[in-house]
Amino acid sequence: MADKFDVIVIGAGPGGYVAAIRAAQLGLKTACVEKWVNKEGKTVHGGTCLNVGCIPSKALLETSHKFVEARDHFAEIGIDLEPPKPNVAKMLEFKNSVIAKNVGGISALFKANGVTAIDGTGKVTGAKQVEVTDHDGGKTTYEADNIVIAAGSVPVEIPPTPLHEDIVVTSTGALEFTEVPQRLGVIGAGVIGLELGSVWSRLGAEVTVLEAMDTFLPMVDTAIAKETQKLLKKQGLDIKLGARVTGSEVKGGEVVVKYTDGSGDQEQTFDKLIVCVGRRPYTQGVVDEGVGVGLDERGFIHVDDQCRTSVPGIYAIGDCVRGPMLAHKASEEGVMVADIIAGHKAEMNYDAIPSVIYTSPEVAWVGMNEQEAKAKGIEVKTGSFPFSANGRALANNAPEGMAKIIADAETDRILGLHIVSQHAGELIAQGVIAMEFGSSAEDLALTCYAHPSTSEAIHEAALAVDGHAIHMANRKKRK
Predict the structure, then answer these.
(1) Once rounded to an integer, what is the mean pLDDT over residues 366-390?
(2) Distance CA 363, CA 463 (A)
(3) What are φ and ψ of residue 135, in 5° steps?
(4) The pTM is what?
(5) Cβ contacts of 285 within 8 Å, gap of 6 or more
(6) 45, 451, 459, 471: which one is catalytic?
(7) Cis bond before residue 312 (omega within 30° of 0)
């Protein structure tokens, strides 16, 4: 038996590394096990998010957005320059440098907080035991009073489109294209599909998105989703709804995709195909069956509201448990679990978790949308405000989009905020904070906002809930 710890965390993604750091800060002897190895054969922390997910995709989204600004919009604001050209090799170099800085930062934080980093694959073999298989196959068993499973998730693969070298890829492969494909297919019009599709569309690819569902972004408020679809179509994304992929064939460096839609059987040829149909929990082999940790039919670990499994002292967080597969959700669960292990009272408000799609403009939301609230029988009142009427958005040459607040008609309590705009991912924090404190629409309406700022659109939307918006004509009569 090797060292004994108060806490061992399996997985150093945004849930696991945060849980480990928090536990160590609270005085608990903590270790974190990570199996991820980079191309140089070195163990790296950060999981999917930092290595092949959130961070690298945002680096490419930002650089591709800047390219489009320079190519299409600089002249509009008085900046003349030669037509710019994308340098994909340099973009990938920048992306990789961003990954390296973030990964190195976590390793430094482990050292600063006294977290023991263990390289290898972790497996729970008992209520207080973790077996780690190192990269050479050697096994070491560690003892811990508490175990936190933060094993994350992996992309879902589907039988009609088996992965094929660099032609049919998941989101991971889509971050490594060395040149802009002329014809790019994307299966899935969810967050990942829209983000990656927009990256390569901006750089010049003809992008077709095939979505099996008939509704575009059903988790977003209908008005915001409709506006988003219109803007993405204007940018050149061909989004086909109700398109169910039935098969594919790779030949001659191309891939022919077959699908059915309202008009019958169809097929389309692409140079590259990205499969973005969701992710599944990475839980197979993480816990011995005899330990007693329960899994559901989809592989998610059963936990209660505070992420306790059915076995005392074993917790699970992040993508391998119920709830949205979001890095920030995993991180907050990591903090909550560490606090509970240390004997503190802690809970998480799952009704106030923001979601963001980092297209351009961005789409962000928190809480319920209008259709969800009505389906639950809640009488609502709403307020919307277009960014085309916001002075700072006009000055930024980014007038697209709108903000919408959904409030309870009886109590005025904010139930949700949905935004499509430049920097919507930053603006949504206002709604998160408001909902965390149980604020009313009137609370935001009575708040003094800086001028000029795009945040004022949220202020005006709050005013519009009761027909009091200042910078647009109100549909309701002022009371």
Answers:
(1) 98
(2) 21
(3) -70, -10
(4) 0.96
(5) 123
(6) 451
(7) no
Tell me if residue 451 is catalytic.
yes
Q: Which residues of 160-171 are buried (b: 16+ CB within 10 A; e: fewer)?
A: ebebeeebbbbb
pLDDT band at 271 (very low <50, low <70, confident <90, very high): very high
Helices (H), 114-203: 171-174, 191-202
Query: Which strand ranges, in their side-by-side order, compose the sheet holding 380-386?
Result: 355-357, 362-367, 414-421, 402-408, 380-386
**Residue 62 in tokens:** 């930002």
C-alpha 406/C-alpha 461 separation (Å) is 10
Q: What is the pLDDT of residues 288-337, one digit of tens each?
A: 999 999 999 999 999 999 999 999 999 999 999 999 999 999 999 999 99
pLDDT over 70 for what percent of the chain?
Answer: 99
Rg of the Cα atoms in the chain: 24
The residues pairing with 364 across neighbouring beta strands, listed in sequence order, are 356, 419
β-pairing, 153-155 vs 279-281, is antiparallel
**Residue whose structure tokens are 């600063």:** 112
Strand partners, 123: 131
Work out the average pLDDT over 136-146: 96
